[in-house]
Amino acid sequence: MSPDFILGPIRDGSWQSHIAADWRRPLARLALLSLGIMVLTARDWAAMADQWWNISTYNHVLFVPFIVGWLIWERRAALASFKPKGWWPGLVLLGCGLFGWLLGTMAGVNTVSQLGAVLALQAGALALLGPRIGWALLFPLVYLLFLVPFGDELVPALQMLTAKITIALTMWSGIPAFIDGVFIDTPAGLFEVAEACSGVKFLVAMLALGTLVAHSCFTSRKRRAAFMTAAIILPILANGVRAWGTIYIAQSQGIEFAAGFDHIFYGWVFFALVVAALLAASWRFFDRDLTAEPVDAAAIGNSTYLSRLAAYRLNSNAVLLASGALLVLVAVWSALSARLEAPLPQQMAMPAVAGWSAVSYEPQIGWQPRAGGADHRMIARYRDPAGREVDVALATYAAQGEGREAGSYGEGALVPGSQWRWLSAAPSNTRWHGEILLARGQVKRLAQTSYRRGDLVTGSVARLKLATLLDRLRLSAAPVQTLILSVEEQPGQDSAATLSAFRTAMGDEARWMDRALAAR
Question: TM spans, by residue (predicted)?
């Protein structure tokens, strides 16, 4: 075959004449299978595209398809050495990818369903092209994983880490400061290490860039590992320096000037300089010959291991038909599970709590937990004879799905864009997770969130998702409830003790919530 990859001699001027004969039908089959996968997983591709375009954290992902195209083009000479052949183990991988997508869809975990959609595309290529071509395309195929938006899960940890780095640098530079969670109080004012200041945007982009550079510019595994370590640590440290710089400038120039300087200099110039510094420091250690072929076609062709794998052949048309059957099976299963809804009463009311009386809900600063897509939402305040008060929010869902997922990002006690900010984590256990919120830098609220499905009462979103997933796999339905108990902190009052006393008076949370459902 011509070393021009799939480019053959031009005979009649048609576009088909540019593609070598051995590649025409395999590429057509691959295009058809890829289209089928993308139609099945269209919701996830639309969601990913929306994040790439509209969320600055993921704008860099818009370049990933072009990078993958360039990486494949670089390998055209090596790919010309092989003929695409159907490979039945690729069908197993395709089934795993589609099942992963199904699990993510049923559990309402977008990252998992999106990852499954990408894995299915990768597996489809292996099933129709074979292991030798798959090995030649290994890095471009793996790099496709950066299409999946990730990083939101890291935000709380990065916020706390940035806050710790910032307070250390602030005190080192002689500025008196006090830290409370993610808030840093200085003479110039109160600063918050908000989600947007966590540095996740730079870290995620640096991971994608670092992976590309490590592969393209190094051959030594030790050098690659050292470069990737630097690519992870440097943006975290740099973000702490950025936050400290803003505080430092604010002490002499004021908060408004510091904020403007932060968005202009730190937002664009500073991190560009950090990237340039990392590449400059690594330049002398690059050990890959940039003129060399990115893969060794001869080594791939002579590999005994790949020869054994290639022996598991299957007719390409049979691979395509089996792939289509997998797509239909998963589509039907997904459609049936999506229709599941548990029966709920038309009206619900907050159950009584022994020794506590329902009173008018009048918070110092407005607080309304978010429960998007819930079929019933209630909030009430209870007071005991000692004057202690507890706010109770209860949301009930007939089903879990897109736009109606308990525990998803932005749902629960902390509502993005409200007056409330996340301050720190609070003691938790298996039945609830605790967090401390702060409003206007002065009012604190301790919130404890529980999720309930059937007999399960947990503070873990992961356990709730798993329970939801198992029910939907069995095509059975059960209501899901979110219970948030919270207390506005008052001088001389132990908020945790107040919530503990209230829980004791409630008794078993599941039975208490059942009374709201009138199920028992």
Answer: 52-73, 85-103, 123-148, 160-179, 199-218, 225-245, 265-286, 318-336
